[in-house]
């Protein structure tokens, strides 16, 4: 067949309807484009930038001290980090879901509660916020107190593999708990979810502080590393948290979630409505409603919870 004939070719009227896979892919692309055009997305991106700016500025700044001063104790550093996480999650949850951590964003992405477009822009904003926060912190801190600007590195007696596994495990626990607490099928979670997340952060730091530093967040180390010009072993603080967070999220979401059946979870990906409302025009046009139910048709409107919010109850608002 010539190029000309390809350009002028029109399918026969009796052509088969689009396949299930093509319909699902088309719906996914429509949802990604809808999220990209949403004004709420850009407000959420700004919120992630601000959250990560504050995380590095205050989180790292709380541990800086001069060479002749006693360093903050492990308890002080741990409580400072946990309380900060509880505060910033409370402030930003309704805006962006308050990820302030690429590992959290990836965890929601693999749990199909966050669009890929949102994930990409979140990570860019988080990284920029981290570097900006570290730059400002260095500028306003007396030279005698800067030290290594809070840069985390494994101690000399800790191997690379041990530090990597520590980061994997603590981020696994963090995402496992977060996804569990936003499981819409549960009614037994009481109290403040941000505060509980802060407690998980405290537990993780108590465990890993003397092994890897207890980062569980790639951007916690990114800003200080860039500003100090020391990228040695920084891959540990990306690979460990990202893989651990994705694994923890997948384990709870796919195996332990009580929200819906596995088929319903697939169908409700990025949904703003309940799984029962997933009937779409594409389904009816193609006449493949039942196969699409199993393959995962995606309705057009995600809830605030389904784009990665820590809110457990759908509010109907966009985030």
Topology:
Blueprint: H1 3-8, H2 20-37, H3 39-61, H4 74-96, H5 102-110, H6 116-140, H7 143-146, H8 160-181, H9 193-208, H10 218-228, H11 236-256, H12 262-267, H13 281-286, H14 289-295
Helix pairs in contact: 3-4, 3-6, 3-10, 4-9, 5-6, 5-8, 5-11, 6-10, 8-9, 8-11
What features would you describe in this structure?
InterPro entries: Aquaporin-like (IPR023271), Aquaporin_transptr (IPR034294), MIP (IPR000425), MIP_CS (IPR022357). It is found in: Cell membrane. It is a multi-pass membrane protein. The chain crosses the membrane at residues 40-60, 80-98, 119-140, 163-182, 194-215, 235-252. The chain has 319 residues and is mostly helical. It is built from 14 helices and no strands. It has helices at 3-8, 20-37, 39-61, 74-96, 102-110, 116-140, 143-146, 160-181, 193-208, 218-228, 236-256, 262-267, 281-286, 289-295. α3 (39-61) runs antiparallel to α4 (74-96) and α6 packs across α10. The N and C termini lie far apart (49 Å).
């Amino acid at each position: 067949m010539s190029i000309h004939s390809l350009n002028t070719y029109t399918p026969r009227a009796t052509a088969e309807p689009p396949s299930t896979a093509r319909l699902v892919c088309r719906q996914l692309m429509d949802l990604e484009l809808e999220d990209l055009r949403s004004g709420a997305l850009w407000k959420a991106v700004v919120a992630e930038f601000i959250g990560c700016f504050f995380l590095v500025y205050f989180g790292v700044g709380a541990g800086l001290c001069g060479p002749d001063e006693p360093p903050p104790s492990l308890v002080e550093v741990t409580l400072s980090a946990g309380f900060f996480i509880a505060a910033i999650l409370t402030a930003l949850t309704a805006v962006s879901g308050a990820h302030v951590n690429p590992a959290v964003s990836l965890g929601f992405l693999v749990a199909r509660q966050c669009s890929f477009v949102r994930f990409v822009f979140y990570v860019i904003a988080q990284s920029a916020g981290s570097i900006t926060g570290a730059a400002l912190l260095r500028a306003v801190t007396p030279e005698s107190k800067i030290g290594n600007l809070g840069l985390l590195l494994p101690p000399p007696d800790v191997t690379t593999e041990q530090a990597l596994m520590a980061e994997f495990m603590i981020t696994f626990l963090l995402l496992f708990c977060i996804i569990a607490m936003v499981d819409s099928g549960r009614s037994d979670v009481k109290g403040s979810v941000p505060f509980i997340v802060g407690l998980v952060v405290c537990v993780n730091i108590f465990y890993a502080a003397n092994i890897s530093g207890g980062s569980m967040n790639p951007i916690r180390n990114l800003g200080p590393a860039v500003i100090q010009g020391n990228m040695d072993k920084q891959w540990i603080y990306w690979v460990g948290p990202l893989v651990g967070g994705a694994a923890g999220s997948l384990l709870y979401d796919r195996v332990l979630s009580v929200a819906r059946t596995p088929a319903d979870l697939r169908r409700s990906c990025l949904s703003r409505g309940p799984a029962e409302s997933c009937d779409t025009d594409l389904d009816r046009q193609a006449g493949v409603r039942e196969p699409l139910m199993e393959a995962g048709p995606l309705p057009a409107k995600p809830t605030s919870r389904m784009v990665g919010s820590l809110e457990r109850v759908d509010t109907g608002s966009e985030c």
